[in-house]
Recover the amino acids of this structure.
């Protein structure tokens, strides 16, 4: 069993448990459920193009930073021009929680990506109820039909969809309704990072779709390389989070890159 299989196995149990505690009708009662969402399509163009991620730990890197709070970090990310923030809500593998989104929602005015492993309709209602604007669908955990059905559901809740792919085979998961296609530079089965692999895959995407380069952007050269290859957006976590002050590090990066 690879790490992704383990994550999905556990996620299934967690969703079953969550459903037994809180119904979809109860989720709809949340103060955020009816809120108009913020569009990443807009901020991707009007801001730096970077989706900065709040991530305490990961299966590939262990603890990255467990000393900072989501609010101190993401308000700096917003201040220095992040197009959106990605916030992990998976607890067991990434040390995240719904509280990480709830604690910042009323304090920032850029889209929030709920970063989790979406395998059940219920999780889309959860995402909406905690104030997320965008959800991630990971092609390797879903069938093309599920991607299509979940995209429809997300849109009915006014959530945008980032579909993540990693291989040529997963190109068939793309449908015309997904808002963004993310190409993960990291193979989630063995954690190998290969930027050129992503560029090769990007060249096979439909021309009119927003493309996001995800993961393993470890320095300025990586960023410049991917930007020059035409990616519209960049999802970056560890490079900023591993610093004592991730927000400041992002500020320095933006100013060096002149974005
Ligand atoms: O990062 C991992 O170890 C990981 C393992 C299994 C599934 C997902 C994983 N990461 C989620 C992500 O997509 C990254 O956090 C995100 O793209 C940012 O990556 P990075 O800039 O390398 O922190």
């Amino acid at each position: 069993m690879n790490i992704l299989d383990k994550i999905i196995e556990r996620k299934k149990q967690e969703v079953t448990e969550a459903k037994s505690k809180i119904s979809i009708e109860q989720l709809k009662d949340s103060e955020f459920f009816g809120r108009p969402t913020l569009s990443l399509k807009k901020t991707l163009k009007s801001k730096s193009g970077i989706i900065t991620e709040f991530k305490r730990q990961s299966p590939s890197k262990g603890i990255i930073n467990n000393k900072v709070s989501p609010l101190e970090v993401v308000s700096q990310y917003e201040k220095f021009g992040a197009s959106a923030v990605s916030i992990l809500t998976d607890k067991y593998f990434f040390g995240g929680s719904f509280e990480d989104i709830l604690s910042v929602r009323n304090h920032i005015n850029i889209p929030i990506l709920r970063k989790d492993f979406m395998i059940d309709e219920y999780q889309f209602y959860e995402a909406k109820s905690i104030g997320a604007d965008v959800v991630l669908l990971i092609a390797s955990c879903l069938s093309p039909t599920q991607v299509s059905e979940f995209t429809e559901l997300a849109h009915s809740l006014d959530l945008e969809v980032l579909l993540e792919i990693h291989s040529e085979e997963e190109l068939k998961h793309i449908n015309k309704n997904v808002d963004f296609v993310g190409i993960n530079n990291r193979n989630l089965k063995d954690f190998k990072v290969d930027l050129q692999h992503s560029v090769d895959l990007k060249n096979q995407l439909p021309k009119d779709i927003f493309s996001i380069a995800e993961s393993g952007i470890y320095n300025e050269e990586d960023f410049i390389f991917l930007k020059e290859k035409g990616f519209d957006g960049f999802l970056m976590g560890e490079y900023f989070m591993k610093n004592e002050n991730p927000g400041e590090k992002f500020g320095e990066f933006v100013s060096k890159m002149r974005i």
